[in-house]
Prior knowledge:
The protein is α/β, with parallel strands linked by helices and 717 residues long. It folds into four domains: 1-56, Phosphorylase Kinase, domain 1 (2-Layer Sandwich), CATH 3.30.200; 57-126 and 384-459 and 474-541, Rossmann fold, CATH 3.40.50.740; 139-342 and 563-575, Dimethylsulfoxide Reductase, domain 2 (3-Layer(aba) Sandwich), CATH 3.40.228; 586-710, Barwin-like endoglucanases, CATH 2.40.40.20. Strand 29 (636-641) and strand 30 form a beta hairpin. The termini are far apart.
Amino acid sequence: MPVKLSYCRLCPASCGVRVEVDGDRIVSIVGDGLHPLSGGYSCPKGRRGGEFVQGPDRLTTSMRRTADGNYAPIPIDAAIAEIAERLEAITGEHGPDALGLFMGTQQNFAALSTPIVRAWFRTTGSHKLFSTMTIDQSAKWIVQSRMGEYLGGRQRFDTADVWLLAGTNPMVSLNGGDGDGAVTQNPSVTIRKARERGLKLIVVDPRLTETATRADLHLRPKPGTDAALFAGMLRVILTEERHDRQFCDRFADGLRVLTAAVAPATPELTQSITGVPAGDVIRAARMFAGASGATGTATGRFRGMATTGTGVCMGPHSNVAEHLVACLNVVCGRYLREGEVTPDRNVLARTMPLKAEVRPPYRSWESGFRSRIGGIGTMNGELPSGILADEILEPGPDRVRALMVSGGNPARALPDREKAERALRELDLLVCVDTRMSDTARLADYIIAPTMLYERPDHTLLAEFFFEQPFAQYTPRLVAPPEGVIEDWEFFFRLAAASGCSVKFAGRMLDPAAPPTSEELLAMFAERGRIPMDELITAQRGVLVSPGEKVVGPPAEGAADRRLALCPDDVADEIATALGEATSARELPMRLTVRRMRELMNSLGRNISGLPRSGYNPAHVHPQDLQRLGIEHGEIVRIRSAHGRIRAVVHTDHTVSPGTVSMTHCWGASDPEADPRRVGSNVNDLTGYDRLQSINAMPTMTGVPVAIEREVPAGAH
Length: 717
């Protein structure tokens, strides 16, 4: 049987694969040992990609809800016409802001989906744009807006002396945080080689993760206390004058205010809040700053950065925790300076010049459109997903009555599962683009069945941000899709046309009467890249481009006086709150933390037989806690929070810190009493909206106070 070369599109790593096919059926998938980027690495979900494509639960035609609440197939032409008509009726009566769009993670792994979906949404005139970014990592956007951005470029993992990974486990997630190319492809080999050349690795995680076992220093803070830990590290660096004075003097304001704000975070106080020994706080700070931190010379500087994942962004005080991580990078000067040279990682995407200047703070939420829910403003043009349920449920002239969901599953991604499902049921129109009858799709009026990876042509333009080396790959369609499916981009393109609108893509208006092909769009998307599309198409394993050099240029005229804001007033207030908050609670003495499964991508892959190891998401607990509670491994327990309770299967796990319950999101059923061994446990029954972050309405999704209780069998007294 023939073997075709391609790359996986289930996560940003884009690993090269060898796909054995029999006609239009995928027989097997293995990592491509000759792939220049991934070198043969593949993960369990990638190797089961054929079952994602042709599993028995895969939708091969679009569906419409019938009058009796069931679903019946509908031709795509009819579905588009009906959806366009219903959208026009809703927005015609209630205005454009009665329409919302929720963009999920899976949308990002098809190069054409995101730009075309966004282009369609712009034609509607609505402001109600939401995505998974604002339910797990919007704190990163808050930092950019409150601090500003240095435009000279960041230091790189492959030349670093030290690297700090917080709340991320790239050995499982294939993402070292911040999408900067750190530890994405073949993470075990990447980390091993980096340490062999001398890199010092610091990992911050309450659990002894697969990545933490490879660290030179593993810090295990109590869940939800990251902000206090980073404040403590900054205090050591600043009081010992290990900061980069030259960089701070040139590019940052507020160093004295920041120093005063973190002054209370002595190693002893930091230990009392976080549980990290005072000596380890000092050691981590010194290891990160390095002996040469104060020199600030253009050559010979100590190099390396701190990057974070969702474990930091989804916890309490996440906005200020992310800000303090950014401060670690700024005060240690971990950026490129004028005249320095760095490889150009862009291949298909347009290369942007680097300049030794600052984009000043811009606080987008303080101007422009504001939601009627709490007066919340936008970040990067999006509203926070934490207010989506209220945007639907709260009466008002512009409440969301129609919602389009592209590549996501908000019924499982949003906190307070019951409220999220109630909101989705209240919609006048819910349309999901999904390959399966997901939890959200089961509530929809229409489910649009899209093509899947290996059924469409694609290239890696949107993934370049995650690559450590300048690399690009094109893949043709490997197998024919079922007759009843449509490419994601084409659905939204045709929906715009049915509404009498044209979408703008790659700087040009697309003619609805002459629809382009996917190949034509991919070529348009990459036309400003460094290599011609024809050359890319002929390179079956992609192209590892010889690194072009980017030189950090001088600041533009008028930009020399712009500064990063290290500690504006609201950040100082948040630091004080994080340092003053008690973490102990007798009623709810444990903390729930998030984790990922190597076999899944959020909720995707949950139903593939034998892929998840347990077939459910266990509650991982340290054996000391189980012994104290008199609970056995494999027992069903009740886990209770201030918001709700769930049933879960408990597993003994020595890697989890005592006092911690570690679980994966995106499992469970709508019935909280359902058998957790069969469907898993819905962690979002434990989360709510009672403790939202300011600015981005971010709920606490990890570090949630909980208690574990033995389940009393029916009839027992």
